[in-house]
Design a protein that fits this description.
341 residues, mainly alpha, 17 helices
Length: 341
């Protein structure tokens, strides 16, 4: 537990803040266009299959429903830019949860994950560098943070992979039944369609996905295996994106998987880009000079959080333990999990 408060580079957390915010913006914007404007799913005069006990949640006639959805999307953009980060992240979290709870029929497991991440973001010091908040108040700037925010995000991604693999250990998946059915409906896809209907493809995807899910969290931990499993992760999610069109989940998974690398990896990418762009190099130098000239020496963040360490530990346990136990809840519920979900 002591290693959770060791100082690390803030760069990877900032990278995730930007990816998370832009993905949240894109996800809500897509829901506004597809579910609201095209399918009219949130019309107050139509039935919404809401979650218990949230049947009381209202929907609104336009233009108010559009204003609400676009406001939630704008909060996601504000999170990405680090503009009034705490307020923006809280507003986005409640807004995204509201949208999630409006219609059970549109459930996606990555939306559930995104709800959890949304409510974690306000507690993470992801706005302490490369943000408009730092531009407005340079004294917020920190180049190093305690390790626990990045460790928590990596652990949640590891849980998604591993339990996704466990869920595939059933007779249907081991006989590639779902993939056989799904692939037959993809034969009319341009370019890749004739490949997807080949008899070996469902078997390859079924067992490839199973092995990747079960092994990824462990291979990502070790430095020697990390690059190779990360390439497999990118390939796996690229195939999912092309074949299944499952929205932001492939991008979110790749971003979370990248957090297993050294926390300074985005800084190295940024340096590589600066070497190839004089304009970027000038902007980076100007930013560093501005922060240095306007900030004041401050206690390191891991020292600032010292009085809060017991509360942080309890909070981490409160997040992690339910995620380790909930996937086994079907053992307490009568019936076949394939039917009861």
């Amino acid at each position: 537990m002591r290693s959770l408060f060791q100082p690390i580079d803030i760069a990877s957390l900032v990278f995730f803040r930007m990816v998370f915010g832009f993905l949240g913006f894109a996800h809500v914007l897509g829901d506004w266009v597809y579910y609201h404007l095209i399918k009219d799913a949130f019309d107050p005069g139509r039935f919404q299959f809401k979650y218990m006990p949230f049947e009381w949640l209202p929907t609104f006639h336009d233009p108010w429903m559009s204003v609400l959805l676009l406001g939630i999307a704008a909060c996601g953009l504000a999170v990405a830019l680090g503009w009034h980060y705490r307020w923006a992240s809280w507003l986005f979290a409640f807004g995204f949860l509201y949208l999630f709870l409006l219609e059970k029929a549109y459930y996606l497991n990555h939306s559930y994950l995104f709800c959890w991440l949304s409510f974690l973001m306000p507690f993470l010091p992801a706005h302490r560098a490369w943000s408009l908040d730092v531009r407005r108040n340079p004294r917020l700037h920190r180049s190093r943070i305690p390790a626990w925010p990045v460790v928590l995000l990596c652990l949640l991604m590891g849980i998604v992979y591993f339990y996704g693999g466990l869920a595939k250990l059933n007779s249907d998946w081991l006989r590639a039944v779902p993939l056989k059915q799904w692939m037959q409906a993809k034969g009319d896809y341009p370019i890749v369609g004739p490949v997807l209907v080949q008899p070996w493809v469902p078997w390859f995807m079924a067992y490839g996905g199973l092995l990747l899910d079960l092994s990824a969290p462990f291979f990502l931990i070790f430095r020697r295996t990390r690059p190779w499993i990360f390439l497999a992760v990118i390939s796996f999610h690229l195939i999912n994106m092309i074949v299944f069109q499952i929205g932001i989940f492939p991008w979110l998974s790749v971003a979370l998987s990248a957090l297993f690398f050294s926390p300074s990896f985005p800084r190295r990418w940024w340096s590589w880009l600066q070497e190839r762009s004089a304009w970027l190099r000038r902007r980076a130098i100007a930013w560093e000079q501005y922060v240095a000239a306007n900030s004041r020496p401050a206690r390191p963040m891991w020292q600032e959080q010292q009085p809060w360490q017991p509360a942080i530990r309890l909070g981490l346990l409160a997040v992690v333990i339910p995620h380790l136990l909930l996937p086994f809840r079907h053992h307490l519920i009568p019936g076949d999990v394939g039917w009861t979900e």
